[in-house]
Amino acid sequence: MHANELGEVPVLMYHRIIDAPSSVYDRTPADFRAELERLAAEGYVPVTATDYVTGHLDIPAGTHPVVLTFDDGSATQLALDGTGQPVPGCAVRILLDVAAAHPGFRPVATFYVFNPPFEEPTGRTTLNWLHAHGFEIGDHTLDHANLRAASPAEVQHQLAGMQRIITDAVPGVAVRTMALPLGAYPRARNLAVDGAADGVTYHFDGVMLVGANPAPSPFSTDFDPSAVPRIRSQASAGEEAAFGSTAWLDRLAANPDLRYTSDGDPQRISAPRTAPQQPAPSVTDRVYRY
């Protein structure tokens, strides 16, 4: 399989994993497991949102990065039993089980939480479990706020306040990416990246949008870390299914030259000469065209 490290990367967006979906944003545990099994079978390797936006894509040759993101911190994503293990049926348990069955499919994901995380008053137990097991924790504001309707002071209070809750729960953790509630930027877009409130300063390497299309390679001129498109996890039928994960994964499978395929060397960026994407000026000295 030819490498193309200027190709597209699916950044998948999940919300509740629930037996009886009531929204286009919900998936059943069976559907979620089936999507992960498909990703594993098609050679995708999960990476964190920070790995993606910073270009740290150290995955085996011939494989493709995928970013699994979870919004809102639902207990259907992570709940722990009396022994401190994820309960059957929650998203993390399913991800761990699929990874155990498919060597090379990493149990890695990024969780964008608001207050309280995973319906736990402080979030301390669940957030520490995630951090200890290699998952990323991101900011989704204190109250799932519509940042477009908020004043600059409130935008910063929402983002800095949630960062404080995360870092109070997990001392020393770096909160490096955020997801925009409702996909809405603040009127001053820079405040989605940098700001300060109540004695807390924040800076995000990446800002996640709501469901759309595959994201560009972090090495291409199309890449904007402050506006990362995500694909809503969704079956092939139903409202807006043409924009959901099944449709986009079908498209990438049918057109493998479009997707990011690793050359196995994290220091080199390989792409065919015919690839339409252009490398960003900052990485041209690492590019190998064939």
Automatic annotation (TrEMBL):
Gene Ontology MF annotations: hydrolase activity, acting on carbon-nitrogen (but not peptide) bonds; hydrolase activity, acting on glycosyl bonds
Primary localization class, coarse: secreted
The keyword Hydrolase is annotated on this UniProt entry: yes
Domain NodB homology: from-to ranges: 64-290
Keywords of this entry: Carbohydrate metabolism, Glycosidase, Hydrolase, Polysaccharide degradation, Signal, Xylan degradation
InterPro entries on file: Glyco_hydro/deAcase_b/a-brl (IPR011330), NODB_dom (IPR002509), Polysacch_Deacetylase (IPR051398)
Region of interest (Disordered), ranges: 259-290
Pfam families: Polysacc_deac_1
Biological processes annotated in GO: xylan catabolic process
Lineage top rank: taxon: Bacteria
Gene Ontology, cellular component aspect: extracellular region
Annotated localization: Secreted
PANTHER family: POLY-BETA-1,6-N-ACETYL-D-GLUCOSAMINE N-DEACETYLASE, PTHR34216
Name of this protein: Xylanase
Organism: Gandjariella thermophila
Taxon lineage: Bacteria, Bacillati, Actinomycetota, Actinomycetes, Pseudonocardiales
